[in-house]
Amino acid sequence: MIRPFSNVIYATALCLLGAVAGLNAAPAKAETRKVVVELFTSQGCPSCPPADALLAEVSKRDDVVALALHVDYWDYIGWKDSFGDPRNTARQKAYAAARGENMVYTPQMVVNGQHAIVGTKAMKLADLIAKHKADGRSIDLQTQRDGDQLHIRAQGPLTAPVQVHLVRYIPQDNVEVRKGENAGRTLGYSNIVTDWAVVADWDGAAPLSISLPIQGDQPAVVLLQSIGHGPIQAVSLPR
């Protein structure tokens, strides 16, 4: 069952942005462990703009990889999300199934593939980021983009076999919403996922070493995620 979450009003935006000051307080470090924050959102969701603003703020942190996944189940209300993708909805449903749940909602954040929270809970998000930064994982994931080739190398102990995910995204865009729940508003979005593909499996028995074709100017993210929508064990941003 799909049920849009709609009891968080836009007036909470000011409170959220105040809480974000704490989220941005962590000093940048040269080798900071990165935490992946996925936001499931929609242009048609009236409760989502504060969460979109929160994601934009945490995306500025050096220790966070923030990704916006626009779902398509709000489209029937009157406005088709220009970034909406049924694959994003499927990913959110798969996360819910992995947790033993039977519904999804927006806005929802999933932190490092493990913890799901309402997408406007700034302080809860800050706590989860701190928790995941402090864990003991030691996988060395290195990525490098060389023209139209992407090289991925990894070694270190896995807690479970992983899939190698390649994600592409648009860093920033604004949308004028003309119909639906957000009609008449121009909304800003950050790190909008345009493609998400599983490119390899890795069991950790030997070091990982693969090269892939990559095209276009959109930034990329490489994730190592436990099979079955489990924990994200490592993340890298190819340069």
Describe this structure in words.
The chain is an alpha+beta fold. It has one domain: Glutaredoxin (3-Layer(aba) Sandwich), CATH 3.40.30.10. It has helices spanning 13-23, 49-58, 86-98, 122-133; strands spanning 35-41, 64-70, 108-111, 115-118, 140-146, 149-155, 162-177, 185-202, 208-213, 220-226, 232-236. Strands 2-1-3-4 form a four-stranded mixed β-sheet, sandwiched between helices. Helix 1 packs parallel to helix 2 (49-58) and helix 1 packs parallel to helix 4 (122-133). It is globular and about 55 Å long.
Please write out the topology.
Layout: H1 13-23, E1 35-41, H2 49-58, E2 64-70, H3 86-98, E3 108-111, E4 115-118, H4 122-133, E5 140-146, E6 149-155, E7 162-177, E8 185-202, E9 208-213, E10 220-226, E11 232-236
Parallel strand pairs: 1-2
Antiparallel strand pairs: 1-3, 3-4, 5-6, 6-9, 7-8, 7-10, 10-11
